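C-alpha cells as discussed.
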C-alpha cells in the first residue's frame, strides 16, 4: 500500500491531543509551527531542498497576527527552503490593547515563617508611567482593581482564596519585577511594558518564576530584554523571541533561559546576531531537539553549549571560526560545517577537546576552508586508556599545518594531534594536497603517538601520495596503517 502524501495526516499524542501532519509523514526533517502560547499549529516532515509554505495563522480576539519568526530566512515571509535540520517557526502578534496578562495560581494562604512573604500575594513594580491616565490600572482577577498613579512603586494584592486568577496590567507604563512571581503559570506581555535592559534602568524580569510554563511577548514596539529575563524559570516550555525584541550585546552574567530545563521550543529570528545573553551561563542542559541557530549568527558562544542540546547542529554560513570545543557538543548527532568555515581555534588544543565533545560517530569538515588543525584536538586520557568517546572517524579538509600547544603535564610545546583515542578507527586525509607539517619546523616528533589502535584502524591518504606520507618523519610511525584513496577522490 502506498502513502498518499498529498493528504493531511493527523497524529494523536498520548493525552489525546491531535497534531496535523500536513503533506504526510515522510521526510528526514521536521518543520514545527507553533502559536504564541506554544501550542502546535502544524507539523510536517520534509526533505532537504523541499519548499514548505506556512499555514494561515490562527485568529484571536485580543491580538492581530503580525509575522512568522523563523531561525532560517523565509521567502516572501511565508515559505521556507528546507535545509539539513529540524526547524521551529513561531507566530507573533500585535495586542489590540496595551495590556499585560498574568495567569496565576494561588495554592496556599498565609505567610512564610522563613521569609515573612505571603504565599497568596501577587504584584508588580511600576518603574515608570509614560503617560498618566485612567487607563493605567491593575485588574487582580478577583473583582478588585487598583489604579496606577505613581512611578517607582510596588503594587501588590493579597488573595482571600486559593485558585486561579487572571491579572491584567493596563496602560502606558514600564514594569519591573514581579512580587510573588512563583505563582505565575502563564504570562502574555505587552512589549511596551518591558522597559530597560537591566535592573538599574528598570527592566522587566520574570526571574525565579518557577511555575511559569508559557510566556509570549507581542510585536508592538522595540523592547530590549534583560539578560536574566527568565532566569530560574524551570517550568518554561516555550518562548518565541519577537522580531522587534532584541538582546543586550554583551552577556551580563544572567543567561535569560538558564535553568529552563523543560523547554521544548525556543524560536529565534534569522537576523539575530548574538545569543550570548539569552542562553548563557553554565546550568541545566536544555534538551531541545528542534532548536536551530539563527542564520545571521557570526559566533557560537560557549554558553549555548552549556545550556542547549539539539539533534543536528547546522553551523550558520556566517560563522567562520569556533573557539571552544564545547560549542560543538550541542549536536546529539550530526554537525554540518559551512563551506566558508576556516578555523577551529587554539582552544581546541587541550584535554577538553574535540574527542570529548563530539557526540556523533563521525566528524566531517572536509568541505571547509580549514588549513590548520590544532594539536591536542584528538587526545584522550592516558590514565583510563582514552575517555569514553563516540567519535570513530574524522574527515579532514585540505589541511597543510598542525598548530602546537603547551602540553599540560610537562609544559612543553607539542604538535601531537592524536593520542590515547582508541575509539577512532579512521582518519581521512584524502583532500590534502600536501603532507601536513608542524608550524614549528624544528619540531621532530610524531603527530600520532601512544595510540591504542584497533586492527581495522586506517589512515586514508591522497591518491598517488602514499609513499610520500609513509616516508615523512612525522607520519612514518603509522605508515603500516596508511591506505591510498581511490583515484576518483583525487
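Sequence:
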Amino acid at each position: 500500500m502506498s502513502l498518499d502524501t498529498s493528504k493531511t495526516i493527523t497524529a494523536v499524542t498520548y493525552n489525546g491531543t491531535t497534531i496535523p501532519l500536513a503533506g504526510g509523514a515522510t521526510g528526514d526533517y521536521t518543520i514545527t509551527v507553533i502559536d504564541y502560547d506554544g501550542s502546535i499549529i502544524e507539523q510536517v516532515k520534509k526533505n532537504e531542498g523541499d519548499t514548505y509554505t506556512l499555514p494561515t495563522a490562527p485568529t484571536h480576539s485580543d491580538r492581530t497576527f503580525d509575522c512568522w519568526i523563523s531561525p532560517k530566512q523565509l521567502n516572501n515571509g511565508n515559505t521556507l527552503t528546507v535545509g539539513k535540520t529540524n526547524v521551529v517557526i513561531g507566530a507573533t502578534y500585535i495586542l489590540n490593547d496595551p495590556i499585560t496578562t498574568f495567569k496565576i495560581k494561588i495554592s496556599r494562604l498565609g505567610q512564610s515563617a522563613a521569609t515573612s512573604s505571603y504565599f497568596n500575594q501577587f504584584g508588580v513594580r511600576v518603574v515608570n508611567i509614560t503617560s498618566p491616565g485612567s487607563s493605567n490600572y491593575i485588574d487582580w482577577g478577583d473583582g478588585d482593581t487598583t489604579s496606577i498613579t505613581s512611578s517607582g512603586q510596588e503594587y501588590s494584592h493579597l488573595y482571600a482564596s486559593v485558585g486561579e486568577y487572571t491579572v491584567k496590567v493596563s496602560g502606558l507604563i514600564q514594569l519591573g519585577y514581579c512580587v510573588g512571581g512563583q505563582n505565575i503559570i502563564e504570562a502574555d506581555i505587552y512589549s511596551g511594558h518591558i522597559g530597560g535592559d537591566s535592573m538599574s534602568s528598570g527592566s522587566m524580569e520574570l526571574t525565579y518564576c518557577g511555575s511559569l510554563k508559557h510566556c509570549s511577548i507581542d510585536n508592538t514596539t522595540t523592547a530590549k530584554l534583560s539578560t536574566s529575563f527568565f532566569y530560574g524559570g524551570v517550568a518554561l516550555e516555550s518562548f518565541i523571541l519577537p522580531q522587534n525584541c532584541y538582546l543586550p550585546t554583551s552577556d551580563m552574567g544572567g543567561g535569560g533561559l538558564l535553568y529552563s530545563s523543560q523547554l521544548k521550543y525556543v524560536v529565534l529570528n534569522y537576523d539575530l546576531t548574538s545569543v550570548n545573553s539569552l542562553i548563557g551561563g553554565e546550568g541545566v542542559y536544555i534538551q531541545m531537539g528542534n532548536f536551530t541557530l539563527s542564520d545571521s549568527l557570526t559566533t557560537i558562544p560557549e554558553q549555548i553549549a552549556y545550556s542547549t542540546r539539539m539533534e543536528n547542529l547546522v553551523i550558520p554560513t556566517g560563522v567562520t571560526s569556533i573557539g571552544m570545543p564545547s560549542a560543538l557538543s550541542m549536536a546529539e548527532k550530526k554537525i554540518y560545517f559551512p563551506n566558508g568555515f576556516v578555523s577551529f581555534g587554539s582552544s581546541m588544543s587541550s584535554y577538553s577537546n574535540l574527542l570529548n565533545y563530539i557526540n556523533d560517530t563521525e566528524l566531517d569538515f572536509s568541505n571547509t576552508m580549514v588549513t590548520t588543525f590544532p594539536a591536542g584536538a584528538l587526545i584522550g586520557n592516558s590514565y583510563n586508556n582514552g575517555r569514553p568517546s563516540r567519535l570513530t572517524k574524522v574527515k579532514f579538509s585540505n589541511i597543510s599545518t598542525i598548530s602546537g600547544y603547551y602540553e599540560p603535564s610537562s609544559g612543553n610545546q607539542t604538535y601531537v594531534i592524536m593520542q590515547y583515542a582508541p575509539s577512532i578507527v579512521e582518519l581521512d586525509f584524502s583532500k590534502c594536497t600536501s603532507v601536513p607539517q608542524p608550524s614549528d619546523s624544528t619540531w621532530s616528533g610524531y603527530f600520532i603517538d601512544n595510540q591504542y589502535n584497533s586492527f581495522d584502524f586506517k589512515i586514508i591518504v591522497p591518491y598517488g601520495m602514499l609513499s610520500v606520507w609513509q616516508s615523512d618523519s612525522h607520519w612514518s610511525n603509522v605508515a603500516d596503517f596508511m591506505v591510498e584513496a581511490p583515484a576518483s577522490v583525487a
